[in-house]
Design a protein that fits this description.
Helices cover about 5% and strands about 55% of the residues. It is mainly β.
């Protein structure tokens, strides 16, 4: 890398730097002007269902469904513009043997509207056990957005297109530490297979520094490791091993009640390719990611994000962030010093009886190509659990 990473976020040309400042102030003013609204985190997409000791010796049926439509109006040489439109269904039968052990068995079905048949039909099985502050899962994981990773490390669209993760997961939680470690065996191979095996591993650690009724400080650490290879396949491609890392500082002030609360966060991100044969364009890179979020009323949350990437490549992250193109028509486009400003308007409406309606509108400005693009989405989340033993 050609420059010292400590200066790369601020070392912009003067024109771009002042444009960034003006755009940040403009988007922030828009967010502040929308008084009278409240919040939407990714929590409505979580599938975590930890063991409840009160359910011992009970059979239960869990129904989870997601209807989604997301339209990416992107006219940028770095990313594709496309639409996602479909539905997911995940019925799940659980039996809680004791307060420390549960078995889950179900099926995950995804259908994309306008396409024949089903795009995914995946049986899911999970052994789940806990002891005090530790929880261990084997089989289908509490994965995807449940990991709580920032979007440059984990793309929101994976909950729509690649939701099921299978492997092993370890979680630990106490007053200061919230830890999630997992391994997702993405692709299995057998002797002579033409494909290579693919494995993802990750760590998400939140360490609480201080907490009061109205204020909280924490240090987040996030790590993604990807490996593609194997020794029994017939694929001639080289082994690929790479990682993404993020460390930051987060501050939350206030409560959800009016006048709402603030969330400020800043992250330093690092990317590294350990392959000696240059499977990726850049060997390493870094980035800075800054966020200001305002919780208002009636289910609305406003967030302004600034991104500055220097030869940074994401392994599982959102497609707008990398310095290399994912565009089908211009795959060789690069943007070594990638600078973005993003506004997110997110609305969450609890309809009741297990149904939550989510809307999102996310325009962003790309300073390198001097373009405004945006995406918008509509999501119906349904969660319901029935006690079969009583019935």
């Amino acid at each position: 890398m050609s420059q010292n990473s400590i200066f790369q976020f601020t070392y912009l040309c003067p024109k771009s730097f002042f444009e960034l400042k003006r755009a940040v102030l403009l988007f922030f003013a828009i967010g502040m002007s929308l008084s009278g609204f409240s919040q939407l985190p990714n929590r409505v997409f979580y599938d975590r269902e930890s063991i409840n000791s009160a359910d011992s010796n009970r059979w239960q049926l869990s129904l989870r469904s997601l209807g989604f439509t997301k339209n990416n109006e992107y006219f940028n040489p770095m990313i594709d513009g496309y639409s996602l439109f479909g539905i997911q269904l995940n019925p799940n039968v659980t039996y809680t043997l004791s307060e420390n052990f549960r078995l889950d068995a179900g099926i995950f079905i995804r259908q994309d509207f306008g396409a024949p048949g089903f795009q995914e039909i995946i049986p899911t099985f999970t052994f789940r056990t806990n002891y005090k502050n530790v929880e261990i899962l084997f089989g289908a994981l509490d994965g995807s957005l449940n990991h709580g990773l920032i979007e440059p490390l984990f793309d929101f669209e994976r909950v729509l297109l690649d939701r099921v993760e299978q492997g092993v997961q370890f979680r630990f939680n106490n007053n200061r530490i919230d830890l999630d470690m997992w391994m997702d065996w993405e692709k299995m191979i057998y002797r002579g297979d033409p494909e290579q095996e693919e494995v993802y591993g990750g760590i998400r650690l939140n360490y609480g520094l201080s907490e009061t009724d109205y204020s909280r400080w924490k240090i987040p650490f996030q790590f993604i490791l990807f490996h593609r290879g194997g020794s029994i396949d017939s694929n001639p491609n080289p082994i690929k091993t790479a990682m993404n890392l993020a460390i930051g500082l987060e501050w939350t002030n206030g409560k959800n009640e009016f006048p709402g609360k603030w969330e400020l966060s800043g992250y330093y991100l690092y990317y590294r390719d350990w392959n000696f044969n240059g499977t990726l364009l850049y060997k390493d890179g870094n980035a800075y990611y800054l966020n200001v979020m305002r919780h208002l009323r009636h289910g609305l949350k406003i967030m302004v994000s600034a991104w500055r990437g220097n030869e940074f490549i994401t392994l599982l992250g959102g497609k707008i962030y990398p310095s290399v193109s994912s565009n089908f028509k211009s795959p060789y486009t690069v943007d070594p010093q990638r600078t973005l400003l993003i506004l997110r308007i997110m609305h969450d409406i609890d309809i009741g009886n297990g149904m939550v309606l989510t809307t999102r509108f996310e325009p962003f400005y790309d300073f390198s190509f001097e373009k405004f693009d945006f995406n918008h989405g509509l999501y119906f989340n349904f969660r319901k659990r029935f006690d079969l033993s009583r019935r």
